[in-house]
Specification:
Cofactor: pyridoxal 5'-phosphate
Catalytic activity: N(2)-acetyl-L-ornithine + 2-oxoglutarate = N-acetyl-L-glutamate 5-semialdehyde + L-glutamate
CATH superfamily of the largest domain: Type I PLP-dependent aspartate aminotransferase-like (Major domain)
Strand content: 15-25%
InterPro entries: AcOrn/SuccOrn_fam (IPR004636), Aminotrans_3 (IPR005814), Aminotrans_3_PPA_site (IPR049704), Class-III_PLP-dep_AT (IPR050103), PyrdxlP-dep_Trfase (IPR015424), PyrdxlP-dep_Trfase_major (IPR015421), PyrdxlP-dep_Trfase_small (IPR015422)
CATH architecture of the largest domain: 3-Layer(aba) Sandwich
Structural class: alpha/beta
Order of helices and strands: HEEEHHHEHEHHEHEHEHEEHHEEHEEEH
Helix content: 25-40%
Number of helices: 14
EC number: 2.6.1.11
Pfam family, one: Aminotran_3
Distance between the termini: 37 Å
Bound molecules: 4'-deoxy-4'-aminopyridoxal-5'-phosphate
């Protein structure tokens, strides 16, 4: 027992694509996770916007164990009640009851399916945005902006144009009848929780309509209640042709989905795409349980209220290093006046809080949607100490 042996084995046996791990976690319950040395941490990241209901949620456990002991997996040549039930629930969220779903195991794979849908339009050009993150497989990477992620893997699928995020005029300048799709995150999570100006998605919708292009909204990080609504774009009255989901959908169980409405829902047919595990009944029942609990326990409302509480209390600290808090619901970025966010995240971890720094000046907070004000306050009360220490270390 203890973390040292596991960390040692990790170095020898796991491809280290994320850098050296800082903790070994062995147990989770609610908003807390315990490391191999017995220390409890408040999980303010929830696996990056994943564990919406917290860890080891009894309803999800009961649903998953019930399903896996009845029917765990069967080929996608066949249908299961769990899969069609989840498809129906997700279609309901798009506002189009005739929406169709392709199930996957991750957000990346959901975007790969969406990418294929765009090719089936007969056009190839995709408009993406600077700062965009859509995944690391070759297709998802082609629409992901970060040059550091892309460079070693060129040539990537081509005909992708990047425009500044949040700039409707920049979109208007490039969206024409040659464009297959515009792909947008409604809030850029990996880029540091960047919120576009009001009306941005609605304007993108108009431009796509005029050009006959698909509007593809990546709600992998923002969707499934994270921001206080099921989906950010539908909450703004915008309909997407293609919506991709994952992360929070399974509460830690791998569940992803590519939803399509209207013409886009007709473009993938037999032979055009496939997956072994996507949509298996265990994953599907997990997704159903998550939706039911979010509804039953009023977690959209809690996400909104707790998000506002976090903004008020963190901004209320009046700390000179805190510029402001951005985001929506429980997807938040604490924007700092100095590039000390990674150091602050390390100090927070030492003190038993899991957060991360998607940008050098942004701390990301994306806790379970069940989090309470008292739990958030333990972090906010400790934050000035982390900020002061990080600032002193940076100055030294
Ligand atoms: N799209 C967005 C907006 C994301 O934030 C992420 C993950 N950070 C992905 C896609 C990729 O999802 P996954 O890691 O499940 O493949």
């Amino acid at each position: 027992h203890g973390s040292a042996g596991v960390l040692d084995a990790y170095q020898r046996s796991v491809m280290n694509t994320f850098g050296p791990p800082k903790r070994v976690f062995v147990r989770g319950e609610g908003c807390y996770v315990w490391d191999a040395d017995g220390r409890r941490h408040l999980d303010l990241l929830a696996g990056i916007a994943v564990n919406a209901l917290g860890h080891a949620h009894p309803t999800v456990l009961a649903a998953v164990t019930g399903q896996i002991s009845t029917l765990g997996h069967v080929s996608n040549f066949f249908a299961t009640p769990a899969q069609v039930a989840l498809a129906g629930r997700l279609a309901g969220l798009t506002g189009d009851p005739d929406a169709k779903v392709f199930f996957t195991n991750s957000g990346t794979e959901a975007n790969e399916a969406a990418f294929k849908i765009t090719r089936m339009t007969g056009r190839t050009k995709i408009i993406s945005t600077e700062g965009a993150f859509h995944g690391r497989s070759m297709g998802a990477l082609a629409i992901t902006h970060n040059p550091k992620y892309r460079a070693p893997f060129e040539p990537l699928p081509g005909d992708v144009t990047f425009v500044p995020y949040g700039d409707a005029e920049a979109l208007a300048a490039v969206v024409d009848e040659t464009v297959a799709a515009v792909v947008l995150e409604p809030i850029q999570g990996e880029n540091g929780v960047v919120v576009p100006p009001p009306g941005y998605l609605a304007r993108a919708r108009e431009l796509c309509d005029a050009a006959g292009a698909l509007l593809w909204i990546d709600e992998v990080q923002t969707g499934m209640g994270r921001t206080g609504s099921w989906l950010v774009h539908t909450a703004q009255g915008v309909t997407a042709d293609v919506v991709t989901l994952a992360k929070g959908l399974g509460n830690g169980f791998p569940v992803g989905a590519c939803l399509a409405t209207g013409r886009a829902a007709t473009l993938l047919g037999p032979g055009s795409h496939g997956t072994t595990f996507g949509g298996n009944p265990v994953a599907s029942i997990a997704g159903l349980a998550v939706i039911n609990v979010i509804e039953r326990d009023g977690l959209l409302e809690n996400a909104t209220a707790m998000g506002e509480h976090l903004v008020a209390t963190v901004e209320g600290l009046g700390h000179p290093l805190v510029d402001h808090v951005r985001g929506r619901g429980l997807l938040r970025g604490i924007v700092l006046n100095a590039d000390v966010a990674p150091a602050v995240a390390d100090l927070a971890l030492e003190a038993g809080f899991v957060v991360n720094a998607p940008r050098p000046h942004v701390l990301r907070i994306a806790p379970p949607l069940i989090i309470t004000a008292a739990q958030l306050d333990t972090f906010t009360e400790a934050l000035p100490g982390f900020l002061d220490t990080a600032a002193r270390t940076a100055a030294a």
